[in-house]
């Protein structure tokens, strides 16, 4: 407060310094939510890496949760550090629209995923919400109403494309459902390898209530997750499940009682991601590809060498490629 009251340029400089220190010392990680004030310019990793001084409440930053924070209006990308290095968190941040897919959010997600898929240092990606009580409410229908009819089709196609891009990431992906996941929001979660939910979360493919069908891959991925008959039942009825019900039918792998901070699913997702970190990165990528597509489709040079050696009746000369 004293800095704010100081006169002239010195006061302005001190006030700015107070704000910077407060931001750099704000706790991050599974027990803390990224401050709402960080919706402005991007902050470099050095600020967060150094910010281990006690915060205003007297609690020190927990080691390993510092990260490079790329802060945009609707998507926050965090590269975790130290013992969590290799974990990347995609945080959706459209509180005013229940994290629904806008043109801008779809563009940001596509750009972020494009960078992740070619980054060999990325080991696991967590998709979460920065908005309490909401994961993603699907397409932004208010924005869609304002579109020309010729724009709607391409917009839906872009949502489907970015969901497919997430599904095709070569590393493990985890959806942390700490709140509502409806329509395209659940389709986004279905595109992830693993889903974790708070017991209070609500999820469902509810498009038939609007006289449309799921357009982001839900008609294919939901049956693969829980079986065709039950998937049909849920889609036909537009039924919404809570976390416990979703666990019972196999839609999520883990369900937890929600905590006071509202991030129980995210904490569990972070625990799972840490379990993946010690494993061989190439093996993880190949295992995911094998599970998704079958071993016969893996395009490795060693596979081709094995087939050629069998044909030529000789011992294979594998090179680990």
User: Quick one: how many beta strands?
Assistant: 11
What's the overall average pLDDT, rounded? 81
Low-confidence stretches: 1-66
Major sheet strand order: 1-2-3-4-6-8-11
Count of alpha/pi helices: 13
**Secondary structure: helix percent:** 40-55%
**SSE sequence, one letter per element:** HHHEEEHEEHHEEHEEHHEHEHHH
Shape: globular
Counting helices, strands and paired strands, the structural category is: alpha/beta
Task: Outline the biggest β-sheet.
Answer: 7 strands, mixed
Structural commentary:
The protein is α/β, with parallel strands linked by helices. The protein is 43% helix and 15% strand. The chain has helices at residues 2-5, 8-24, 45-50, 103-117, 141-145, 149-167, 184-190, 218-226, 228-237, 243-249, 264-276, 281-293, 301-312; strands at residues 67-71, 75-80, 87-92, 124-129, 134-136, 173-177, 180-182, 194-198, 202-204, 241-242, 254-256. The strands form two sheets. A seven-stranded mixed sheet has the order 1-2-3-4-6-8-11, sandwiched between helices. A four-stranded mixed sheet has the order 5-7-9-10. β1 (67-71) and β2 form a beta hairpin. α7 (184-190) packs across α8 and α8 (218-226) crosses α9 (228-237). The longest helix has 19 residues, at 149-167. It is globular, with a radius of gyration of 22 Å. Residues 1-66 have low confidence and may be disordered.
């Amino acid at each position: 407060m004293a800095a704010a009251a100081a006169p002239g340029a010195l006061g302005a400089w001190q006030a700015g310094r107070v704000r910077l220190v407060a931001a750099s010392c704000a706790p991050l990680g599974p027990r803390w939510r990224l401050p709402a004030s960080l919706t402005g310019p991007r902050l470099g990793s050095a600020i967060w890496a150094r910010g281990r001084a006690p915060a205003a409440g007297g609690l020190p930053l927990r080691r390993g949760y510092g990260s490079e924070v790329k802060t945009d209006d609707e998507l926050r990308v965090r590269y975790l550090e130290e013992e969590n290095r290799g974990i990347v968190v995609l945080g959706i941040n459209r509180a005013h629209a229940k994290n629904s897919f806008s043109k801008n959010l779809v563009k940001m997600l596509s750009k972020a995923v494009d960078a992740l898929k070619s980054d060999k240092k990325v080991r696991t990606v967590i998709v979460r919400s920065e908005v309490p009580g909401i994961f993603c409410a699907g397409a932004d229908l208010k924005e869609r109403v304002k579109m020309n009819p010729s724009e709607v089709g391409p917009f839906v196609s872009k949502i489907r494309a970015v969901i497919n891009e997430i599904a095709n990431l070569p590393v493990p992906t985890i959806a942390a459902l700490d709140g509502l996941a409806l329509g395209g929001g659940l389709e986004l979660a279905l595109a992830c390898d693993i889903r974790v939910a708070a017991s209070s979360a609500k999820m469902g493919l509810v498009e038939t209530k609007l006289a449309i069908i799921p357009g982001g891959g839900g008609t294919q991925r939901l049956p693969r997750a829980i079986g065709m008959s039950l998937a049909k039942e849920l889609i036909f009825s537009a039924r919404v499940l809570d976390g416990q019900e979703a666990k019972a039918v196999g839609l999520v792998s883990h369900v937890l009682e929600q905590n006071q901070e509202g991030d129980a699913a995210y904490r569990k997702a972070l625990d799972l991601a840490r379990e993946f970190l010690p494993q061989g990165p190439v093996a993880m990528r190949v295992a995911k590809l094998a599970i998704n597509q079958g071993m016969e489709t893996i395009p490795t040079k060693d596979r081709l060498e094995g087939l050629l050696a069998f044909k030529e009746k000789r011992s294979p000369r594998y090179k680990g490629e």
